[in-house]
């Protein structure tokens, strides 16, 4: 079957037990090239801090690397946690990326800190201001729209002669949907960790939407967690690494992503098992047919224009295989 929606992927740059950080970094390039060849629409990198199992802490560096090693796929942030950064720095970084790779960069923005309270303090996150103020400042820098009396009106954004790439607002409830619509930017809903239904948020987004040059029409993306293998049984087996990793993270025990063998042997506390029982209802795990039918049903119910997939398994090779099986199941046209 051919999907009635675009397919994209998110890479958290997982660091698996038994591998080095350098190997995890090299894998980001391999996955980007594989995604480009498979025909995926876009590839986004998240911003996470203080997590031993995730190497994606500075999206713009990974974006620049991936874009330089691919030809067609759009590459972006999913997303920049704006409260961790001065808006001027983000404006400069993403204008630079857009200048280097015109027409292939996305700027996804989120309001979460991307880490725990300790990481927030280390980043000096927020500065006491609200996300909306940071977002307004970022857009004013890009549009050169500060009032003449504003001190920032005297600050030219470098590099000049290029605008920010298309912007997306990330959300895990309906709170950001209306704002994204009013701004005329894309909206991405985090269905991979939010139990809130995506459909009401998409409806609010489309109702408020006002077209812009970057987005003449609304664009609603649903992000899902998927593990695909040739059989349901193998996919379930591989998913144990993600399940145990999530349980350990939420109960304050962090480490690199363990193998499925070790994860199955791990004895969990009742609290950790409860975390898995709750969160695993959001994960899509199975054979290509199972995964295809489940994704298609969820996308149709939500009214998604695009589905972004994130996959967490211990083996980098099997993670790439998962993305290949999904693309083939939906009849995505390869670029290779």
UniProtKB/TrEMBL annotation:
Any one annotated GO CC term: cytosol
Domain Luciferase-like: 17-304
Superkingdom as given in the UniProt entry: Bacteria
Gene Ontology molecular-function annotations: oxidoreductase activity, acting on paired donors, with incorporation or reduction of molecular oxygen
Pfam families reported in the protein's UniProt record: Bac_luciferase (PF00296)
Family of this protein: To bacterial alkanal monooxygenase alpha and beta chains.
Name of the protein: Luciferase-like monooxygenase
Organism the protein comes from: Devosia epidermidihirudinis
